[in-house]
Write a sequence for this structure.
């Protein structure tokens, strides 16, 4: 990702002439904008298409999946030749064909496990084109911690919804969740790793018509945000295609929600990388805060799995989504193993001897240092190439197309 304004595309200044006829339109703001899109399925395709048409200058795309034949009836950016290729890479290539001046980087990976929070901090706005609560909760927490607004979209056959969240000022995604939502989520979280993985393979029935409506509104909300206009933040727009009706919703802040304190400051330390020992991160944070109780990790890490029958313990140090299939069952007796999770690393912990990478965190992450009531984010900024990277660390894998991972 390049922080410079993209070079003028073929057609020069006339490409956006009709936009400039709008009195308040500022094309330079869009050219300089940095937008992170999480999810590049049917809905994400429409979002990316619109960002390219609008001339947004810098875009990062996150998706872990590959194009399948069933995607071709719902996803405007994919072609038959893309079958089997990473969705993020194919969408990035198509976006460049729409607008050659766009600086777009595909990130092939699971946002829950493979993407550091530094990429969220890089963005001016985040767009979620997701199909499950767990990922929405993660994106919501990342945006709340880093003070980034995000626009969520959801589609289901002929229905769709767009919601804007800008905590701590407005309600956030967690504020909109009902008791039933939490019960379903907690039931899934209480499941074994095998059951979690099986549940994650489901899909949501979608149509390209509703995807185009919802994706357009999401992109439009980002345009309004970048121009300092009032938008959907703290609100929602619901579209019901069967009855051709739509209505707005206002979401109250939940007083029990944890995401409405001001976002803590973040220290981007270029001297820290994923290979730095956590002890080094700990000492750096202790010096900044004048003391330190613990380092809180950006995500839930499986420290080990243990067989409930024979007691065998196998170290893992991976997010739950990346625990190897071979570790889910005991190698000795075949019984499903129970995970041990780690969320924080305290003073004196043996885990301080591990590096950021060894404990299971992705590159360019943010670790939260806590001393009493004081919190400081430590951005592992040494993973980020000089300036704003053209290729983010999560995008590289030998042999992957378009520099994607």
């Amino acid at each position: 990702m390049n922080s410079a304004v993209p070079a003028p595309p073929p057609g020069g200044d006339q490409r956006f002439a009709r936009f400039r006829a709008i009195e308040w339109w500022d094309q330079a703001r869009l050219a300089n904008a940095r937008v992170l899109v999480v999810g590049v399925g049917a809905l994400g395709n429409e979002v990316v298409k619109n960002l390219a048409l609008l001339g947004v200058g810098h875009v990062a795309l996150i998706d872990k999946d590959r194009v399948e034949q069933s995607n071709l009836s719902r996803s405007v950016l994919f072609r038959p030749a893309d079958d089997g290729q990473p969705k993020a890479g194919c969408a990035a290539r198509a976006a460049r064909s729409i607008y050659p001046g766009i600086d777009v980087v595909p990130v092939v990976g699971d946002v829950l496990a493979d993407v550091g929070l530094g990429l969220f901090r890089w963005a001016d706005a985040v767009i979620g084109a997701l199909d499950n609560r767990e990922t929405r909760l993660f994106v919501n927490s990342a945006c709340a911690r880093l003070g980034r607004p995000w626009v969520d979209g959801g589609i289901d056959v002929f229905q769709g919804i767009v919601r804007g969240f800008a905590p701590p000022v407005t309600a956030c995604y967690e504020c909109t969740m009902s008791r039933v939502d939490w019960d379903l989520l907690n039931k899934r979280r209480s499941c074994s790793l095998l059951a979690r993985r099986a549940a994650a393979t489901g899909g949501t029935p979608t149509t390209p018509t509703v995807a185009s409506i919802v994706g357009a509104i999401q992109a439009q909300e980002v345009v309004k945000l970048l121009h300092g206009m009032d938008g959907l933040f703290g609100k929602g727009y619901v579209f019901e295609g069967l009855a051709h009706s739509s209505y707005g919703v206002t979401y109250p802040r939940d007083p029990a929600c944890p995401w409405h304190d001001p976002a803590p400051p973040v220290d981007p330390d270029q001297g820290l990388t994923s290979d730095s020992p956590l002890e080094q991160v700990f000492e750096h944070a202790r010096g900044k805060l004048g003391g330190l109780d613990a380092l809180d990790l950006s995500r839930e890490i499986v420290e080990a799995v243990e067989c409930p029958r024979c007691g065998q313990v196998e170290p893992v140090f991976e997010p739950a989504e990346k625990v190897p299939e071979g570790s889910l069952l005991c190698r000795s007796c075949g019984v499903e193993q129970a995970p041990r999770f780690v969320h924080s690393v305290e003073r004196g912990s043996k885990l301080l001897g591990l590096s950021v990478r060894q404990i299971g965190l992705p590159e360019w992450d943010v670790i939260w240092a806590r001393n009493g009531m004081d919190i400081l984010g430590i951005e592992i900024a040494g993973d980020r190439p000089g300036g704003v990277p053209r290729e983010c660390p999560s995008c590289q894998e030998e042999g992957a197309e378009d520099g994607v991972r």
Summary: The radius of gyration is 22 Å. Residues 271-383 form one domain. The chain has a mean pLDDT of 89. DSSP finds ten helices and 14 strands in the chain.
